[in-house]
Design brief:
The chain folds into two domains: 248 residues, 2-Layer Sandwich (BirA Bifunctional Protein, domain 2), CATH 3.30.930.10; 88 residues, Anticodon-binding domain (Rossmann fold, 3-Layer(aba) Sandwich). By secondary structure, it is α+β, with helices and mostly antiparallel strands.
């Protein structure tokens, strides 16, 4: 027997109702904000992520699925969604359509991680990118959009955390302050953080190792090292959040796991998810498009993990719409009735009903059992006697009542049952 790869899952049955609910809600809300869907390839040139995400990040160092194709090209299954969208923006010259450009996406991403609740090797992200605006107003819209999505999903037990990691002008001073702080403690840190000290010191603030966590609380605060421009940007964002009554908590140690972030960073965490509690994360990445070969263009966005949002919905016992059941089952009693049954099924489907028809040539008893297993609302029974008399028998599966309906009116009769 061949099993699915570790860190992946099969989605089916009632589990899918959560996914449909999240996906449909995301599409509905982003449409209201005028974000256009974009679908990028599942694999991209490896260099896109080396340059975009950062060579010293854990994603690039440890987590990417990279392979060489038959042409000798290095390709990588996308580990995140932002860099591919920015590549598409440059390659397809979307800037010709004016700014800002606003995109949304949903799809699988791949990271080689230790599987656990809320963290898979193939997982699904929804996300948005707002390209072109350098102003805090754009940051605010993206955050407001994320909150609107969670509110529309009827989630409540979440909290917004806001940080600012500065820009290329002020971040070097902050890095030096972190080095000065961590240098005397270097031997007490985990192996990864000892390595990151020289390559990516901001990641020390986000280490999950218990050896490193005690030092994070007393580390230098990013807000104390912002330049005047970053401070002005940050103050403007906070003003919008306050004026429009969005609750948040400032976090001067908030960093993200990708090197392209500048200035605003934010995370929305759900209280029920333990260590994997971030359900949406994002921020500003003003240098990414230029890093990928395009003209310098400010951008901001977020990504959310569908698996973690599903867990949050379950933990809050949110009432999620059920998957639609079969509405009409057409039971066929003999071969003479099969063609009229097929015609009726097609006509009902053409009018928007979910219809199942006997494909196993079961007897009527077993057909009724199967219809009941499908939670079918109505069964139409067609046999030789019904055809000769020009009537079809309709059974209400909830009440057990049966009625004969003239074959000329059967289609309208069934449709009216669901319109009423």
């Amino acid at each position: 027997m061949i099993n699915r790869p570790k860190g992946t899952t099969d989605l089916f049955g009632e589990e899918l109702k959560y996914w449909y609910f999240i996906e449909e809600t995301f599409k509905k809300v982003t449409k209201l904000y005028n974000y256009r869907e974009i679908r990028t390839p599942i694999f991209e040139a490896t260099d896109l992520f080396l340059r975009g995400v950062g060579e010293e990040t854990d994603i690039v160092q440890k987590q990417m699925y990279t392979f060489e194709d038959k042409g000798g090209r290095s390709l990588t299954l996308r580990p995140e969604g932002t860099a591919p969208v920015m590549r598409a923006y440059i390659e397809n010259s979307f800037m010709k359509d004016g700014l800002p450009q606003k995109f949304s996406y949903i799809g699988p991403v791949f990271r080689y991680e230790k599987p656990q609740a809320g963290r898979m090797r193939q997982f699904y992200q929804f996300g948005v990118e707002l390209i072109g605006s350098p102003y805090a107003l754009a940051d605010f819209e993206v955050i407001r959009l994320a909150i609107d999505i969670l509110n529309t999903l009827n989630l409540h037990n979440y909290k917004l955390y806001i940080g600012n990691i500065g820009c290329k002008n002020c971040r070097p001073k902050y890095r030096e302050a972190l080095k000065d702080y961590y240098q005397p403690k270097l031997n007490q840190l985990c192996f990864d953080c000892q390595k990151r000290f020289n390559t990516n010191i901001l990641r020390l603030l986000d280490c999950k190792n218990e050896k490193c966590k005690p030092f994070q609380k007393e580390a230098p605060n990013t807000f104390d090292y912002l330049c005047d421009d970053c401070r002005k940007h940050f103050d403007e964002l906070i003003l919008y959040l306050d004026e429009l009554d969005i609750n948040y908590e400032l976090d001067g140690h908030l960093v993200r796991g990708l090197d392209y972030y500048t200035r605003t960073v934010f995370e929305i965490k759900h209280s029920s998810l333990g260590t994997q509690d971030t359900i949406i994360g994002g921020g500003r990445y003003d240098g990414l498009i230029e890093e990928l070969g395009g003209k310098s263009t400010p951008s901001v966005g977020f990504a959310g993990g569908i698996e973690r949002v599903v867990l949050a919905l379950k933990n809050e016992n949110v009432n999620v719409p059920k998957l639609p059941n079969c509405q009409v089952y057409i039971a066929v009693l003999n071969e003479k009735a099969r063609m009229p049954a097929f015609k009726l099924s097609q006509n009902l489907r053409g009018r928007g009903l979910i219809v199942e028809i006997d494909l196993m040539k079961r007897n009527i008893r077993n057909q009724m059992k199967y219809a009941n297993r499908l939670n079918t609302q109505y069964v139409v029974i067609i046999g030789e006697d019904e055809i000769e008399r020009g009537v079809f028998t309709v059974r209400d599966m909830e009440t057990g009542q049966q009625i004969e309906v003239d074959e000329k009116w059967i289609e309208n009769y069934i449709v009216e049952k669901f319109e009423g």
